[in-house]
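Q: Structure for this?
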Amino acid sequence: MAQKPIRETQAKALIRDQWPQEYAAGKPAIRFAEIDGSTDLLALPHNHPWLTEGKVVAKVDELFGKRGKLGYVQVAETWEETKIWMEGLRKTTATVAGRCGVLEHFIVEPFVEHEEELYLAFTCERTEDVILFSRKGGMDVEEQGASIVRIPVPLGTEPELSQLQGLDTKLTATIRGLFSLFRSLDLPSVEFNPIAVNARGVYLLDCVARVDTCAAFRQRSTWGLLSIPEGFGSTRTPEELFISDLDAKSGSSLKFVLLHPQGRIWTMVAGGGASIIYADAITAQVDPKELANYGEWSGNPSTDEMEAYTGKILSLIEKNDREQALIIGGGIANFTDVARTFAGVIAALEDHAPKLKNLKIFVRRAGPNDRRGLKALQEACNRLRISCVTHGAELPMTAVVSEALSALHLTPDS
Amino acid sequence: MSLLFSPTTLAIVYGRKMVSVQRMLDFDVLAGRKPSVACIVDPVSSAPQKTFFGAKEFLLPVVRTLKEARERFPQADVLINFASQRSAGAVVLEGIAREVRVIATIAEGVPESDTRQWIVEAQRSGTTLIGPATVGAVTAGAFRVGDTGGSTEHLIASKLHRAGCVGYVGKSGGMSNELYRMIAEHSSGIAEGVAIGGDRNPGSTLLSHILRYQEEPSIAMIVMTSEIGGREEEDIAKALKEKRITKPLIAWVAGTSAEHFPKDVQFGHAGAWAASSAETAQAKNQLLKKAGALVPQRFEGLPEIIAKTYEALKASGRVQDPMEPILPELPSDRRSAHVQCTISDDRGAEATYGSTPISQFIHDGSLVKTLARLWWKTDLTQEALTYLEMILVAVADHGPAVAGAHNAIVAASADKDTVSALCSGLLTIGPRFGGAVDAAARAFFDAHARGLSPQEFVDAMKEQGERIPGIGHKIRSVHNPDTRVSTLLAFAQDHFGDLPLTTYALQVERITTTKKPNLILNVDGLIGVSLVDILLPQLPKDVADGFFEAGYLNGLFALGRSVGILGHIFDQKRLKSPLYRHPQEDILYGEGTLD
């Protein structure tokens, strides 16, 4: 669990619904229609009559930026025009920055006549929050250059906005209100680019926000109610959802990301740090497409949890007809019991053994009760006629990767 | 102080983590030091924790609050915080306020804004934070935080029981242990290692520890491992360029695989994602290398660089291989005793009550004196002993009609043996008969402690529809007082000065008796409140803590009344009473409806 981006519609709904009373005067005008995969476009104007009352702006809302440049923003004279545009894009596949995903979510808002566009962002530094402000809204932050004003706000203090001279009071109240939401809602970063101001009010023309999922326990009544999306192109597979659910219910950590279902190298690595190093070792030596997944388990999961976790990964291995290797790796555990966690691995192997014809297992793990655990796993594999080699701390941590690669006749690149 | 811990460092462990505490104590034995844990804080229970130091079992003190831990063990200035994700923050902030020197927080999933608040507070007070989301830190041969270093076997293999010359700092708790082993196999081992945790804003930075190692004379080289995400390496590179770091710094940033993934992957650590191209592992490795750090091509190149660096330092005479100490043996099979006894001992030449030989008690010939030692592990003043004996006399018997005596009479008439008949009488003692002394004492004590006036107390109990325990008698009333109560009260008032709770109870009685004359302070009530005034202040702290839960006062009633019950049993035996059968005309059969 960590920071995760939320959709523009979600961010705007939060701002609209959680706006602090004390800054009521600065509350931005927020009006939008949200379109997801199941929205009936024909019925939409019924709930949002303004859609048919003037110009509208429609944008793809899929957690990636630079939408204007990519052609995913449309300003239309009429709703009918927008509808046709969206129908053309809806549920099509797009590749953005190397990630491939389906365009399903859109946001439609009334077009706002305005002259000035501003840039506003809040971020977290180690001991202070930071407000970034510029009068050149609409451009990327990297392009802002000298126009950008950086206002540090030490934790526990309120922002000092006197640097922003000539700002009208309405906008000051807006900034204070947004800043207070940024803090109270545990949003590690929020960006509004641009904000527009006209005689009638303040408008957030764009909004990008991230939530700190670690704070979910105290944000239950705010964004805790939302379904936090995966990143673009990260539609989760049933196996990923199953393990994510397992993880959520456990006090330990059980992570799994499917990268290439037809890859030949599967990993179940103990430890957040070690799992990165194993992934590095594999991708450094062979075509990264051979790495089937990223997986991590730690925090002394129970035998049952390990059985469920391993079983789910084995079910994916069964579906792949190529000759494959499963690397059960890890460093020297501080407190995770190797024998107890491996008992779960063994139980899952016993369950799946008849279908694991093309699998070789490579193990390197150490920690409390490691000898007992390694021996039990080796004996179980011998009994089940699954090819398996087990190592403890005597083998360098990632040396087992080379063993697996040569067993699959995958010659290292370098 | 440039190392975090020394062989005399003492810690407070927040949370009853038995296994982790035991690991710390095992480390202490291997390192040849005294126990490093001063006490455990357990908000739920102060029952002491059984632990082993080597082969010897002992009781580690447990307190309910950090405040008490700091007061009782002021020399313990390290806090190891095993509180959960939600409560870890409050513990850290209290630790900072109570001037703890180092706080290590193990919890995963602490909200970023909480950690950042700790950092601000800790900077103000000069506290060193380690974590959250870590296993902790270790100073070789001196002190281990919680589970750091793993099981004994690995601890020895990683040479954590004696000091080496390498300072290590990294993000990952799990990897720290792997690195300790790697460093021990390719150099003299670590002097100190810290895992700062995998969050985006950990409580302490990599650089702060590197700069400490730079200052520490016993450290000759530094190893650092980091991960994709965050930009702290820019500060480290700057410190290298500015020659604030001059000792060899071996560094590796993991996460080079991220760029090969077809989708965003959140690694197992919260901080392990790149918000910009400057935060990728490749960029950071390159930056460190350019600034002068020793960066291998891949993680697998680390051992070679460590060995080369160490050998070069050795060749230049800057370091030498340390002597390997002889390790004490840790027993492989330690079994905790099933029964524990703290009040008496029959093993010596003469049995003792407490530490006093029983002949001394026999010589003194006082039952209540013996009782005080065996029940409360203490000696009481002569007045208090006299008062206790008066109570035992007052409750010894109350005629044949009350529940206890009646049951015993029925059992004795059935020709049951003496002990069975006594038990049948004692078994009636409970909330309605003789067993309300503790409840009465507690009810008055709580009301008084909450600052309720006698009237407020009476009103509150009435509102809840509850009787006030210790108030009311079936027969006696203000017009017909209970002489047991008046005699005990007179003695107490004459001999013990201030009796605040007794006075309070008498004020309550004044209110209740205006409503009904029999709502007097009964004998249970008086014994309860007067003993809170007289006995409780004389008890040792560990005994006083559980005063109301242990049931001491009901125990006094049971002891005294046993005398009377036995009397009734012997009486029936002498009288050869026939089997008792209750008369049918005294029983209302059926539902009691009018036909």
